[in-house]
Amino acid sequence: MDPQAKANPTDPDSGIMKTAKGWVQGYNAQAMVSEDQIIIAGALTQDANDVRQLGPMVTAALVNLEMVSGQDVELGAVLADRVPQRRILAAGPATRRPASDSGRMVRCPT
Fold it and tell me: What is the pTM of this model?
């Protein structure tokens, strides 16, 4: 047994992630909100960055909205913050067709 090893016995699914201020044990939280700031999708990941999160979040939002409305929906626009450059990425309109998870501008054609 490694005496230097550390574990979180109360939350073994959390991960150790590098941040701008050092290391933390926790999750990477994602949220997608409507224009009037109603949460339409949310997720927790163990990924240390957001590079592969936009596509799944768009899909989750569309699925959630379709479940609530009972019909096909379309997102008018999708905005995302690309850290560390802090550039706002825009795509739209979005449907359930696959989106790129590259961390670059995501196009979700109808």
Answer: 0.65
